[in-house]
UniProtKB/TrEMBL annotation:
Signal peptide: none annotated. This is diguanylate cyclase. The lineage of its organism: Bacteria, Pseudomonadati, Pseudomonadota, Betaproteobacteria, Nitrosomonadales. It comes from Sulfuritalea hydrogenivorans sk43H. It comes from the Bacteria. Its EC number is 2.7.7.65. One of its GO terms (molecular function) is diguanylate cyclase activity. One of its GO terms (cellular component) is plasma membrane.
Amino acid sequence: MLVEMSTQEVRWLLSARQHISLLHKRRTTMIVSRVRLVAALFSILTPLWIIIDIAAFPREVWLPLVVGRIAATIAFGMITLLAIKMRTMNDAYRVLAMLFAVPTAFFLFSYQHMAQFQLHGIQQAFSTGYAFLPFVMLAGLSIFPLTLLENIIFISPLLLMQFIAGILRLPVLDWPTFAASFWLMLLIAGVSVLAGISQLAFIIVLVREAIRDHMTGCFSRQSGEELLELQFAMSLRNHAPLTVAFLDLDHFKQINDRFGHEAGDAVLIGVASAIQEHLRQGDVFIRWGGEEFILVMPNTTPAQASVALQRVREEGLGLRPDGTPITASIGIAERIEDSLGDWRTLVDKADVRMYEAKQGGRDRIVGPGAQA
Ligand SMILES: Nc1nc2c(ncn2[C@@H]2O[C@H](COP(=O)(O)OP(=O)(O)OP(=O)(O)O)[C@@H](O)[C@H]2O)c(=O)[nH]1
């Protein structure tokens, strides 16, 4: 899968800093739902372990353990409920950190507690088994689609905890045993990180499929709507203009009817590449549906957008199969000049003007001010 990824996508595997909003959304949903599942499962399993504690240990050993397990059960239950409302990536980090904090706290507490007793036979076996909790937690990390950096951030405290616990135990434990268990922990961490990253790679490929329109290579309607929302919010925050152009090809149906659907598809691909050639970096070109396209131009006034689109029209959108030029009717709207409060009304305004362009005779631009 790595071989099929672009350099940017490989960078997404390393750190979440440049992740696009659609990827954030997908990961948030996946992480939060898995946190809920694990927390719910542990809120059932943790109290069941109380039976084993009571059966295996004398009262002075099991009583504090049981109190700790009840506290952990309540914490897992709260995480399960809390995760229902989590929507953003920061929320996802928070619940994930909580999910790991609960067993970590329980481990530190039970480890200190058990160290006070000289246990033998089956009791010692259980006590040694409890020391494997950090290993289980590390393995559990593999079900979350995290980047390399996020994995390191989550794994480091666990490795550090194991390292310190090992150093403290050195007087009673020989160093080869300590080194071997630490080595095992590093191996589990490595496998977990690989598993988590390959899940992330899978999500990235799915997101890529959803982002692009297969035929034209433009942004798809779904990702386009998210980008519009983002650009609108940024334009609002920066008090910067945001222009949207709605393009509809003229008499496109005739191409399909006279020359077939494949010829129509070829025209759409040609138009998309002709327009994309002239775009500025930062402009977003979306296939809105059928033969309708939307061009989102941040930090651009309608006058500047008209000049750019006029240039595109002069260069040409390509030819119909009969050799006549392809033309488009274009409506332009701008957030500030048209006093529009959200991206949907901005698109609607551009759409209305595109219809005015159609009614005015097609092959023209209608903007907030003049016609071209
Ligand atoms: N080949 C092809 N045709 C498509 C695709 N999507 C939509 N269409 C066709 O695009 C045509 C759109 O036609 P209309 O909206 O009626 O308008 P028009 O013929 O372009 O005329 P005006 O917009 O009024 O200038 C329909 O015939 C659709 O079937 C596509 O992916 N490929």
